[in-house]
Amino acid sequence: MPGDTLIASLAAIVGDEHVITVAAEMVPFLGDWRGRYRGAARCIVRPANTAEVAAVVRACSAVGVAMVPQGGNTSHCGASIPDNSGQSVLVSLSRLNRIRDLDVPNNTMTVEAGCVLQEIQAAASREGRLFPLSLAAEGSCQIGGNLSTNAGGVQVLRYGNARELVLGLEVVLPSGEIWNGLRGLRKDNTGYDLKQLFIGAEGTLGIITAAVIKLFPQPNAVATAWLAIASPQDAVTLLGKLQAGFGAGLTACELVSDISLGMVLRHIPEAQAPLERSPWYLLVELSSSGDADALRVQFEDFLGDAMEAALVNDAVIAQSGEQAARLWDLRERISEAQKIEGFSIKHDISVPVSRIGEFLDRAGDALNAAYPGIRIVAFGHVGDGNLHYNQSKPEAGENASFMASQTDVNRIVHDIVHTLGGSISAEHGIGQLKREELQRYKSAIELDMMRAIKQAFDPKGLMNPGKVL
After folding, report:
1. Do residues 266 and 359 both lie within one domain?
2. pLDDT for 41-50, tens place per residue?
3. In whole angstroms, how far apart are CA 78 and each of 27, 37, 134, 221, 401?
4. Could you say which of 18, 52, 175, 244 is the most buried, measured as most Cβ atoms within 10 Å of its Cβ?
């Protein structure tokens, strides 16, 4: 079937206005937000519901045309960008944006894949509930993409990754069939947990169209503090003491290097340093269903003891929700500030929490020996061992040429991560960025099992080809 015939078929399914073929109108869909990947597509198709997604998949499958699912297009690894052949169809899920059900007694919400994460959070909040998945792109990322990459964010420490926040899925399979697994059950021991195959699969096994997600009671009290500390090892020690003192009340524990903060202060006009500068910082959040004043007093006592033990050099506790938001803004805008300085070599790695300090020491020494004067921007989720570990040159103009060193820099970083029993991708996925790296660090039997699953679900290889495997 010629390309124009396929486009006519797609238009008959979703309407002429929802099949985009004009080059200028396709531009926003064909490049990633980091400016690293740019692809081409036969067209952009924007179905409005699951039945239309299924019909689009059947039409493309019938003529052997590859499909690239796309949500909010905030991927860090190029997972939602097509290749340069211009032959694939990009399937945008942005019109699947309904909240189908909100079951407050069951603490669940059924949402379509195109729902923006922040809007889901707001809908839960209006009912006195919390959807805890929270990340910097929450104002534009969509839940389908969050689930397809098993997104993490800042509250994994207490609530888990996206994988732990899903009870059921609705998925359009590569055949065009619809699997309705939208069950809001905490216990369902009836064979293989099929939903987990699609979470983190980056659209290579099917297209997630809806999900049943978990909600939690909205905490009555929240305490947020910015701490100045001497080292990552002190951060790990503090984490253990916070967990012992507050248990599940420890919502987030974020590590920020002074280099990272300095970039935010330099490039984000409204940003202000909360304390005198320090080599490292921790952003800590506690939450509770109890009394806010009692939580604050307990936190102040804890910090007093930590300062006496020389684990904390200085601290500030937010006095209001607005102040807490400003502290979080310093953490969340690191990536934005780094982007302003140009390209950098980025790593989204995880190691056992106990080995965070060792990783930072070993990787820092190795990189500085290989690239004297290199600038290392390190920050991340110390509570779950996930660090964003990025390298660039101090002069922004040197970064474009520095990108040629990416393979060698990756080898230094990822080999150390692997030696420490870590992962080369903690929460951003594989996409096309780390596809070759996956081959290096996954065992042969793991790769064989992954290929077998891909073959079983997508024997024609039409669903987001060139990603992950």
Report:
1. no
2. 999 999 999 9
3. 15, 6, 21, 39, 21
4. 52
